[in-house]
Specification:
five-stranded antiparallel beta sheet, 7 helices, four-stranded antiparallel beta sheet, 2 domains, 441 residues, mainly beta, Immunoglobulin-like
Amino acid sequence: MKKIFYSMAVLWYLFPGISEATCERVTGTAYLTTALIEEGYTAKSWEGSCDTCNGNLGLPSVVQISTSSSFMPSGTLLASSTASFIQGSARVAYTQNQILYRCLLSDADSIYEMYATNGDNAYTGQFTADEVEGAYYSVAKNVAYRLTNTTTGEFYSRYWKSRKLTLEDWIQDSTYIYVPASAFSGVTMELFKIDSTSYYVYSGTSDLVGYSQPNGYIAFKGTGVSNNVTEGADSLSYYEGVGTYWPGAYGMYNNVRFVRGAVCLVKDYPSVVSLPTITVASLNNDEYSQNTFSVSLECEDAAVSSVSSSSTTATANVAMGFLVNQSTAITAATNLGLTSTNGLTHLLDTNYGNSGVASGVGIRIYDESGNALNLLSSTTTATGNTGGWYAYKALTTSQDDSTDGVTTYTGNFTASLEAISGETVTAGTVNAQLQVVVSFQ
């Protein structure tokens, strides 16, 4: 026995390469070469996919659920959002060039992004909701969720799916492969109304998601990391590396409130509102270019018209507003001081400040009584009139056509292109986007 042990010891000494190399979790710049750092790559400590480590996917802060299955039937899309891995996978955001893993060059053929729902939890990915393809029961009663990998286009499943990482995804030198945060896929999350109530945590009038289990995970699989996480394996039982070694968790924890009650939906609105051509001289003379448009809502007769927060009242309150949904336009208006307390006063061109685009002008929206409306700069609720929310009955009139408990409300508005006080008007085109939003508060 001593002789055999001695022989094995000699072999180990002579041939250290027979031990299995493992990929490493990179948590500081000591893992990086000077050349990498000079190229702009970084490394620092990161949390991994703990239960409360998800980022914000950009879903509406309030998701409304009708209590009527006829007004909001099974399969109705309640909300959706797409977020990059950088934006939405971690509570502490990654940076594009942050290195997360280091592997040997010999590992090049065995490095994967793995993704699955949270298969060991009934409310975050264990049970499929058959009313919607690829969807799973969520924490909210009558709500299913679906995750889609933005790179592969595949739905997340309880059973692990894989995407092989390649030279296009990583950086390498003569010794190591370095895997940055930019290598990993983003996600689209969709929320659907369903009739089934088999699994849920929340069923109240207003529920902030405080249930801390993620809805899906991004796992890294490499030599020695997440060994039992393989294509088709059931995430209920196979989750080696969870938390510390997995870089991403996607979920709604602390970011979404579900409010249920009688709702309104946008029924009709114009796709384009054209404004007549106007000269710079006319604009400088306080003249304006205007056109009218109408918006129609369908509201359950029990809907409550109010801007009060549904989290502090016993009713689900419904308000409407006009959302500026282009970040460039929001930034430009903010820089020019065209803001109310929580919203915006003017809608600017989507490419404001670029060549060929008119400057010194913006669009204001007026109600039927001639009152200028504040505009929403985000879907954050309960910010009142100063934030761009208005009780829907304050801006619309009932058409007295109630059928099966649903009534049409119509509002007439004016879009007005005007000179911005204190700014120089220059000639060019104006092409701006505005979205009609109706939401529980």
